Amino acid sequence: MQFKIEEIKGSKRFTGTAASREDWINFTAISGYIDRCEGHVLAGEKHDFNSSGESGRLDFHGTETKEEWEDLMRNGWSEGAAKAAEMCKEIDGTVASLRKVQECELKDEGDEIDIDAFLAGEENHWYQYPERDTPAKRSKIVRLGLNVAVHAGYSSTQLLWRGVITTALIEVLQSYGYQVEVLCFWQTSGDKNSNICFVSFPAKSAGEKILPERLASMIGHPSAFRRGFFSAVEKLAAEKFGKYLTFGGYGRCFSEYIFQDKQPLDIYLNDKACVSDAKQAVQVFKNYLDESGLLKKAD
Predict the structure, then answer these.
(1) What is the enclosing helix (H) or strand (E) of 75?
(2) What is residue 247's predicted lDDT score, i.e. its pLDDT?
(3) How confident is the model at residue 142 (pLDDT cuts 50, 70, 90)?
(4) 162: burial class by Cβ within 10 Å (0-12, 13-18, 19+)?
(5) Domain ranges of the chain
(6) Residue 118, pLDDT above cutoff 70
(7) 74 and 68 in contact (C-beta within 8 Å)?
(8) Region 135-143: what's the mean pLDDT?
């Protein structure tokens, strides 16, 4: 993890950025505060906040123990992956209607063999996919940001729907030639001086192939926020925890993405994507695509 403290218009901003999913898992594996050498940005007086490591709060954390969550992050959430796959099917008709179908024709050489044509002795038995010089291919990488913060009232199903919507967006955008990266983050305001804490990790890098079901479960599980991100901010020493998150809680979450001027997002998902059923998911999914304008730019 990399850390930085900046002063912005009289307030301070603390940022913690993981270089990869593995970096994030390793950093958050131990819950609560960890003593650091003097001079380290996280060093200071110890505090007792350890919500990420509490046991027995399945309805809130999503797992009975922190160890269960670590296992899910490293080895996959098979139950959630299966559920996410079923949920994906409920909106697949809408996704398929928006997906760009790549035109192709049979040639005597090409990119993919047509088995039936080959067995029939046809001379032209290779599919050849044309290169499409589109604005999407020439454009910058599409950055999709996911603010994981939600209040305690959201159910695990609502959180998983947000993961399904995210994977659907990725699928459609990639069919138009875009490369998509996904940034997961949590931003919270702290004391009366409106100091801000921002922690993040890359859930998917541009060009990376990752199973939609795996991604949906990874960012849709309640523990992604209530264990993973809680564990990350628990590493701040007492003074910084109070300044950037406030004692008595883990800060006040807010929706505005604070780095839009320096590191803009093309699509930004927050708790509005935590829907209750497929009908709502389809509408929210379409809204995100329309608001981004990316499909029109790709034509």
Answers:
(1) helix 66-75
(2) 47
(3) very high
(4) buried
(5) 2-47+68-102+133-298
(6) no
(7) no
(8) 68
* Contact between 230 and 250 (Cβ < 8 Å): yes
The C-alpha atoms of residue 213 and residue 207 are separated, in whole angstroms, by 17
Mean pLDDT confidence for 120-137: 61
Where helices occur in 108-261 by DSSP H, the ranges are: 115-119, 135-138, 156-175, 212-220, 222-223, 230-233, 238-244
23 vs 57 pLDDT, higher one: 23
Separation CA 223–CA 76 (nearest Å): 13
How many residues appear in the chain? 299
- pLDDT the model gives residue 160: 85
Structure tokens given for 207: 């060009």
What distance in Å separates the CA atoms of residue 227 and residue 254, rounded to the nearest whole number? Answer: 19
Within a 13 Å sphere around the CA of 154, how many CA atoms are in the beta-carbon half? 26
- The span from the CA of 254 to the CA of 238, in Å, is 22
**Contact yes or no for 210/165 (Cβ under 8 A):** no
- Find out whether 144 and 289 touch, Cβ atoms under 8 Å: no
Residue 213: closest CA among 83, 98, 74: 83
Nearest to 269 by CA among 214, 191, 215, 207: 215
Please enumerate in sequence order all residues whose Cβ is within 8 A of that of 141, keeping only pairs 6 or more positions apart, or say none. Answer: 178, 179, 180, 181, 206
Q: Are 186 and 198 in contact (CB under 8 A)?
A: yes
Q: Which of 5, 17, 167 is nearest to 84 (CA)?
A: 167
Residue 182 phi, psi dihedral angles, 5° rounding = -120, 125
On the question of pLDDT at 277 being above 70, the answer is: yes
Chain centroid offset of residue 13 CA: 22
